[in-house]
Specification:
Helices cover 42% and strands 23% of the residues. By secondary structure, it is an alpha+beta fold. A hairpin with a 4-residue loop joins strand 9 and strand 10. Helix 3 packs across helix 4 and helix 9 runs antiparallel to helix 10.
């Protein structure tokens, strides 16, 4: 089963109206599907709360008998044309005493207000004690309310769905896995596979465009108005979005790249290397314990679970070569070339080098970076030499927004 088939069955699942085999398929699906697992949890929490509600509320002993006796007495008196009507003064007295009693018991959060026994002994025909909801009515109305709530929840969830995506352009051969028909629509949990000399362009609803290059495999794992995500298993994809009303993320084995109104490209290779190139705007990269923003014009590599050093696309050839050598050995010769070849737009590259060099070299790096972007208030040279995390982040933020 896919999401499209499972969503209508969720209510039947909790009402035990489907087979055990269908239940197992749903349970196996929600283990791997982010979207359906959220829906499943909402239903589970809702029905758990319903089951935890008390079956009934027990009134004080004898009060119901007394109330119904009075109702019967009232009915008999009406049938016999009795004139047992309280005077206005007595009725005011009853209301006053009852109000005082309610205020007294309010502090105890009593759900049932207790009337004085001397008042219950007298017929009252101007106060209606008839219960609006008998037990039978509650038993009829409660399931109806639950059904209405579940339907509203389902409709709300459906309105948040942002699929299927539409394939608007393709060259060569491609396939949407596990589906023989409707190859122009891309649903939740679908895998799209391109082959040699083929590529596909997908429209992400009203959010943007996704271009899949040849020999690539992607899977749609989340598609809502506020959150859209694919997983890239291999190959290359490019994303171009034009709205800030939601987020679009591309997940690989070692990173999650999230954009917000930007244009970027990701390559993922068999050796678990992720290469991210930001063409315009900026992206947020989440890799391991590292989360940072990468602005336009930068390329960033992640080797397995080790983050590399971002490099500006306009950097000199000598700097790029030295950076490759420096990432391997962290040697002083490569460091000196990077320092000498760097320009103002290489500031984020220099920032990433601080934790990779000895303290005696960090002073030179600080002076170079400070000449491009002065350290903001609260950031000191000594703090940077000691790799103070708060100061490093503050300086990063100062550089990133200016670049």
């Amino acid at each position: 089963m896919n999401c499209f088939e499972i969503t209508p069955l969720l209510l039947d699942y909790f009402d035990n109206l489907i087979s055990e085999e269908q239940k197992k398929e749903i349970e196996n699906h929600v283990k791997d599907c982010i979207k359906c697992s959220k829906d499943f949890k909402i239903f589970t929490d809702f029905f758990s709360q319903i089951e935890s509600l008390p079956q009934s509320v027990q009134p004080p002993k004898g009060i119901l008998d007394q109330i119904f006796n009075e109702i019967n007495n009232e009915s008999e008196l009406k049938d016999n044309n009795s004139n047992a009507v309280l005077s206005k003064n007595k009725l005011r007295k009853i209301k006053k005493q009852q109000r005082l009693l309610e205020e007294k018991e309010k502090a105890d959060h009593s759900k049932i207000k207790k009337l004085p026994l001397d008042l219950l002994e007298k017929p009252i025909n101007e106060i209606n004690f008839k219960s609006r909801f008998s037990k039978k009515k509650i038993l009829v109305i409660l399931p109806l309310l639950i059904a209405i709530l579940v339907i509203c929840l389902y409709l709300y969830t459906s309105l948040q769905e942002n699929y299927p995506w539409e394939i608007i352009k393709s060259e060569g051969s491609y396939v949407i896995q596990n589906r023989l028909t409707d190859q122009k629509k891309f649903y939740l949990d679908d895998k799209l596979i391109t082959h040699d000399y083929s590529n596909v362009t997908v429209k992400i609803a009203d959010f943007g465009l996704l271009h899949i290059d040849q020999n690539s495999i992607i899977k749609l794992i989340d598609a809502q108005k506020g959150e859209n995500r694919i997983k890239l298993f291999q190959g290359s994809v490019s994303a171009n979005t034009w709205t800030q009303t939601g987020k679009f993320s591309i997940e690989t084995q070692n990173a999650i790249t999230t954009e917000n109104k930007s244009n970027f490209k990701i390559n993922y290779f068999a050796d678990t290397t992720t290469v991210i190139n930001v063409i315009s705007g900026f992206v947020e990269i989440n890799s391991g314990n590292n989360v940072f923003m990468l602005p336009e014009g930068y390329t960033f590599k992640i080797h397995q679970n080790e983050t590399g050093i971002p490099v500006n696309n306009s950097s000199t050839g000598n700097l790029k070569i030295a950076l490759i050598e420096f990432e391997k050995k962290h040697d002083q010769n490569s460091f000196n070339i990077i320092l000498n070849e760097s320009a103002e737009f290489d500031a984020l590259t220099l920032w990433h080098i601080f934790p990779l060099i000895d303290e005696h070299l960090r002073g030179k790096l600080f002076d170079k970076l400070n000449s491009f972007y002065a350290a903001p208030n609260g950031v000191t040279k000594q703090g940077i030499l000691e790799l103070n995390k708060e100061m490093l982040k503050k300086w990063w933020d100062e550089i990133a927004w200016q670049i």
